[in-house]
Design a protein that fits this description.
Elements lengths: L3 E5 L16 E5 L6 E3 L12 E8 L8 E6 L5 H4 L48 H15 L1 H4 L5 E4 L10 H10 L9 E4 L6
Antiparallel strand pairs: 1-2, 2-4, 3-4, 4-5, 6-7
């Protein structure tokens, strides 16, 4: 596959079309598509703090109104997310060799859900994660400010599970939407700021 914007109708003819979502979305794909936007700033030169990439355009409720989904170009900092949630970990040195961003790796400091009342490893319930409720959807939300908040729509984030990680991107996409959640956890969450792992 080269890079560019692809329509995911489930019957595409490009390489790996059998792996497309089939949800009538438009998605960027390839090694380095030119899909950068500046969000959170009107400055002429966009800083890394405000640089995002467009994942694609999605019509989740099939009403022919598309929402654009963005992913932050580089990682957020603890100054943006705050350190007041239980999931703040101070330093994830284990992940340093996998880090692809440009900022100091000592600021990669958040766990998925450090609810040790569930188990010693924490919880697998994203809806109760303080990284979700405090760091992303309170602190980062407030960091963005009202002007930029008004451009973000609440979106359904599917939380269905997969039995293993040895699957294709298409299998994970289908699993998120069609499989049960982990244990008795919810299978969907309406939120404005999601994580992308």
């Amino acid at each position: 596959m080269s890079f560019g914007l692809y329509y995911h109708d489930g019957i595409g003819t490009y390489t790996n079309a059998d792996q497309e979502a089939g949800d009538n979305s438009y998605r960027y794909a390839g090694a380095s598509p030119n899909n950068y936007v500046c969000f959170g700033s009107d400055e002429e030169v966009c800083s890394n703090d405000n640089l995002y990439r467009i994942i694609g355009a999605f019509d989740d409720d099939n009403d022919k109104v598309y929402n654009v989904k963005l992913i932050k170009y580089d990682y957020v900092t603890s100054e943006m997310l705050g350190t007041n949630g239980r999931d703040y970990a101070n330093n994830y040195s284990f992940y340093t060799t996998y880090y692809k961003g440009t900022m100091d790796t000592s600021t990669i400091a958040y766990r998925w859900n450090y609810d040790t009342s569930v188990s010693s490893n924490g919880s697998n319930n994203w809806t109760t994660s303080e990284f979700n409720t405090i760091n992303l959807n309170t602190n980062y939300w407030n960091y963005l400010g009202a002007t930029w908040q008004n451009l973000i729509a609440p979106t359904a984030w599917h939380l269905g599970g997969m039995p293993s990680n040895g699957n294709t991107a298409k299998a994970f996409y289908d699993g998120e939407r069609n499989n049960a959640g982990y244990g008795s956890n919810p299978i969907c969450l309406l939120a404005k700021i999601p994580p992308i792992f």
